Amino acid sequence: MTSSQEPKKQELPPTAWAVLGLLSFPGERTGYELKKWADSSLRFFYWSPAISQIYAELRRLEELGYASSARSGPEEARAKRRYAITDAGREALAGWAADTAEAGPPVLKHGLLLRVWLGHLAEPDRLRAMVGEHIERTRAELAAVREAMEHAADVPEWAFPTLALRWSERQHLSELDLAEALLADLAELDAPGRQADGDAPTPG
C-alpha cells in the first residue's frame, strides 16, 4: 500500500470496516442480506447497524474502490444490487484487521448499571424487577447466539465468526452470573438495620 493510500484508510470509521468485513466472505450480497447477517453475528459482540448505515458505507466503499456492485438481470422479478469486495478492499481490510492499535479498549455502556447507580432515587422493588427483566433479556439473547452458532457450525468459511460467537456465548453467561450477583447485592443492601452513608463515594 502506498503512502498516498494510507490516510484514506485511516479515515474510515469502524462501521465501514465492519461492512467491508461482511463483504470479505465468499459470495455477493445485497444491502438487506448484509443487514440480516450483521443482526445474526455482529450484534452479539459489536453492534447492529441500521440499514441506512449499511447503504451509506457501501456507497463510501465503492467510491474508494474497496467494493463494487452490479444490478441483477431480468431473470429476477425484482432488480437487486449486489455488492462484492475488490482486491484493493481486501488488501486494505487485511491491513486494518492486523493493526492492533486500531482495536482500542472495549467500551461498556451498561444502561441497567447506570440506573442502579441512581438507585437512591428508585424503589428497591423496581430495581430488583429491572434486574430480573435484564436477566430474561440476556437469556433470550443467549438463545439467539447459540442458534447463530448452530447455523454457522457446518460452514468452513465461517470458522472465525463462529469463534466470535463462542466468545459472545461466554460473555452472555458471565452477564447472567453478574446479574444474579447484583440481585444478591441489592438484597443485602435492603437488609433490615442497614444504614446508608450520606457521603458520596468519591476518592480521597
Structural description of this entry:
Residues 1-9 have low confidence and may be disordered. A two-stranded antiparallel ribbon has the order 1-2. The protein has helices at residues 6-11, 14-23, 31-39, 51-64, 87-97, 100-103, 111-117, 124-152, 159-189; strands spanning 67-71, 81-85. It is built from 9 helices and 2 strands. It is elongated. Helix content is 59%, strand content 5%.
Radius of gyration: 22 Å
Uncertain segments of ≥5 residues (pLDDT<50)?
A: 1-9
Coarse morphology: elongated
How would you state the average pLDDT, rounded?
87
Distance between the termini: 51 Å
Please count the helical segments: 9
For the biggest β-sheet, the strand order reads: 1-2
What is the SS-derived class?
A: mainly alpha
Largest sheet: 2 strands, antiparallel
Q: How helix-rich are the residues, as a percent range?
A: 55-70%
Number of strands: 2
**Share in β-strands:** under 5%
- What assembly state would you assign to the polypeptide chains in this entry? single chain
Order of helices and strands: HHHHEEHHHHH
Looking at this protein, list some descriptive labels.
204 residues, 59% helix, elongated, 9 helices
Short description:
The chain is mostly helical and 204 residues long.
List the helices and strands and how they pair.
Layout: H1 6-11, H2 14-23, H3 31-39, H4 51-64, E1 67-71, E2 81-85, H5 87-97, H6 100-103, H7 111-117, H8 124-152, H9 159-189
Helix pairs in contact: 2-4, 3-4, 8-9
